[in-house]
Amino acid sequence: MEAAHYKPEQLNERFEFSGKFKKNVIYLLIIGVVFLVTGILLTLNAPAPAHDAAAHGEHAAHEVTWYTYFVANFLLANTFYFRIGMGAMVFLMFTWLGGGGWNTLIRRISEAMTQYVYVAFVGFIILFFMLDEIYEWAYLKEGVDALIDAKRAFLNKGFFIGSNLVFFLIWGGFIYMMRKLSLQEDREGGLNTYNKTTPLAAGFIITFAFSYSLFSIDWLKSLEPHWFSTIYGVYVFAGTMVTSFSVLYLLIVILKRNGYLAYVNDGHLHDVGKFMFGFSVFWAYIWVSQLLLIWYSNVPEETFYYVRRMGGSNIVLGGKSWFEGYEDSHEYMGYAFFFFFNIIVNFVTPFLVLMTRDAKRTPVIVYPLLFLMLLGHWNDLYLLIMPGAVGKYEGSFGNILMQLGFALTFAGVFLGVVLNSLSKAALVPKNNPFLEESLHHSTGVV
Amino acid sequence: MKSNLIVAKFWNPDTLMDALAEVHHKGIPVYDCYTPFPIHGIEQYMDIKRTRLTIASFIYGLLGLSAALLLMAGVNGGALDLGWDIKSWQIDVGGKPYLAWVDFVPIAFELTVLFAAHGMVITFFIITGYYPGKKAELLDDRQTDDVFIMTIDADKVVRHDEIKQILTEKGAFEVKTTA
Which residues are CB-neighbours of A240 under 8 A, at least 6 positions away? Predict the structure, then answer.
């Protein structure tokens, strides 16, 4: 067997959230808030564009102001970091259910990531009070739009808030139980906690599959209540897993550079890299499936979604028929760049870079790439939210600054919460039955 | 399989691994090992080179991708004027343009996978000399059941008796040279 690169006493190490780490998190928060405030001030002073009636139908006299952008960006940032925490929980539960032991040594990092989900719940609860600003079904009165009225049984504030509170309770409960059992295992040992976690994992996976799909329909898809797509929940889930594994890889690399996790070897990094690669391909598969079916069937109720994101860039699809009858499609032209940037950054680049075995094991290669992928999936979420929430493209400097501010502020909060939770428990779950397997984990020498 | 081999048979994988480690430590090149099931970590003592099958697979994949694009652009769009009567093969689906990249995706994907998979299997068969229906070359009938075999190329080593001595000491129940 390969020689161990760590000292036995390192298995008892604890992460200390202090000094450099704390300073960097505070810097992130300060820079984020400065950008956020500057962005808001710049957008505040810009003349509010009269909202084009065509964008939301003739009846929508809804004015887009700085506050609309604020709420939309808030939703974007909150969902982005929420997905990272949720993805970590899914990863923990499906490896547990599959009897996977290799990730035992990095389990505590995933656990710490799940602890952010509680903070994201608070963000969503704040957003409950801002629904009127971006959701068409929330600000339109009954009797204005017959199609929305037909969906009122689902698209009303009572059901929206109620069902989401139920989801938060379920997910929060599962995460709380998982963490509690994991910490109990450290104190007690034995197989008792292990056996209790298995049904927990099964229950979580089943409820998650349904509730997460409904969650993504509620918060993201209902921004465009006239549109249909049956693959939407899977699409959001695929992005969730990519961002979550990217952040997991990032945290492992950061901790290793600071002298922690000496026992985590290239094999662990390799496997996390495989998941990043695999889910990137899965995401692209769902992306193209949705586009392909909507493009072929050519039903106006579905195609307008892509018209708003490609902005009438006809050449790429080779025909004009798609954009006939959409006089305002040129107003969405600004989104076209992000649309194609999306597929290049989230599929083509990781596919070619992460394909080889050596690349997945080399942090120097993955490190810049994962930042690119995080940017790419921020961009993906931007495309899911913005055309529905604020309508036509307004690429002002203030909006970009506001978005950057949100991204950095939330990154500060996220890292603060995750690193703080990481310091609360030992880095190695020393009583886990799979500990030995994980210590000897190897993906082969050749 | 080579004919001039030193063959050592073991009753269990642990003794095989022990003997392998010893042989590896002494710098004796191992020809191959035959075991009823894959043994984790065995490859580090066998000086196996990285497989280049993955590189071949990538090339076959690119070949498949180009074949698919060429096929579709040629047949569907008539983009390549090769003097064939290709316009008659064009299929109008719901008024969609003939040269649109969206409907190219599934076919490009399928042909990439098809070429890569078949190319890899065929390359593997050619390199290893296997083919369907080939008679199995067994050093011992029990090597598919409960016997673990290590072989050393007798032409590449000199002190045969000394090596046989080491193998016997390390727990081989039978050591012989195939003629």
Answer: A83, A84, A86, A87, A90, A212
Prediction pTM value: 0.90
Average pLDDT rounded to a whole number, residues A310-314: 68
Domain membership of residue A235 as a residue range: 62-439
Mean pLDDT value across chain B: 86
Residue-wise pLDDT for B29-48, tens only, equals 898 899 999 888 888 888 88
Kindly state whether residue A266 falls inside one of the protein's structural domains: yes
Cα B58 to Cα A350, B55, B65: the distances in Å are 15, 5, 10
- Regarding whether B110 and B150 lie in a shared domain, the answer is no
β-pair partners for A426: A14
The total of structural domains in chain B comes to 2
CB pairs under 8 A between A and B: 50
Q: Which domain holds residue B122?
A: 53-128
Beta bridge partners of B152: B6
- Cα nearest neighbour of A291 on chain B: B102
Instruction: State whether A316 and B96 contact (CB < 8 Å).
Output: no
Higher per-residue confidence, B140 vs A410: A410
Q: Which of B44, B95, B99 sits opposite A321 (nearest CB)?
A: B95
Same domain, B61 and B115: yes
CB contacts, 8 Å: A321 with chain B:
95-96
